[in-house]
Specification:
Keywords: Amino-acid biosynthesis, ATP-binding, Cytoplasm, Kinase, Nucleotide-binding, Threonine biosynthesis, Transferase. Belongs to the GHMP kinase family. Homoserine kinase subfamily. With 294 residues, the protein is an alpha+beta fold. The chain folds into two domains: 158 residues, Ribosomal Protein S5, domain 2, CATH 3.30.230.10; 124 residues, GHMP kinase, C-terminal domain (Alpha-Beta Plaits), CATH 3.30.70. Strand 3, helix 1 and strand 4 form a beta-alpha-beta unit. Helix 1 packs across helix 2. It is globular, with a radius of gyration of 19 Å.
Length: 294
Amino acid sequence: MVHIQVPATSANVGVGFDTLGLAVTFYGECEVELSDKLEITGCPVAFQTEDNLIYQSYKYVLEKLNKPVTPIKLKIDSDIPFARGLGSSAVCIVSGVLAANELHELHLSESELVTYCTQLEGHPDNVVPALLGGLSASYQMGDTIFYQHYPVDESYQFVAFVPDFTLETAVARDVLPESYSLKTVVNNQAKLLFLLEALKTGDATNLDKFLDDDIHQPYRKKLIDEYDIVENIAKKSGAKGFYISGSGSTLMGVYNQSVNMEALNDSLKSLKHHWRALDLSVDYKGANVCHRTI
């Protein structure tokens, strides 16, 4: 039996649209073993089928390598919500790819793991940090996937504001314009460079300015009810920066001081939607695999 733990991710990180991704200390876990028939537990019945993304990812790797697809017994344990901008699909994909690699002793390299995960996800910005941890920039050029890790000062804390409503990535992408002015693109590019330095050094003086994106957030924030109210609550509680996690609906506050989480969650209770604040930090380990003997 193999136990797999994969961190949730927060993509884009403001101005790093479709490039940056951050692994955080919020996990999806599963136990997988070979079996004589497919058996899936620990998730809604609708996902206990061959269409389950973990199983589909497991199957994909084996088929790509012309290996027989042996059924598995899969037990899922995850509180990462679906379609909330926390990389739930990346967690499933990484879990399935690692399950295939471990159960069938494929000995895939890091590069091969990244490639299979990206092929399944369609882009690398969530799967790279989910697999490898930390803050990373990633970009696919043709068949080659480039990725680079960046340090985040230990003084930073991340608070995820997770609502009770979903926001599908396809919907969030449809609201974006087809083109941007040169000034907009240059501004975002410059902010990205300064953002990486601020995260590295722990200097949060201008963090809010460097996170202020003009490519996707002005359009997507309109799809997230109570965005402005939650942003105001976050900043009143000491957040030095604020951004949409992935395509939403989760919002992320960046702090450089301890946060009174009880008071913060109390302040969210008066809102129309049910929001919960999760106290997170950067996960630097990425996906973890442990073999267990029954």
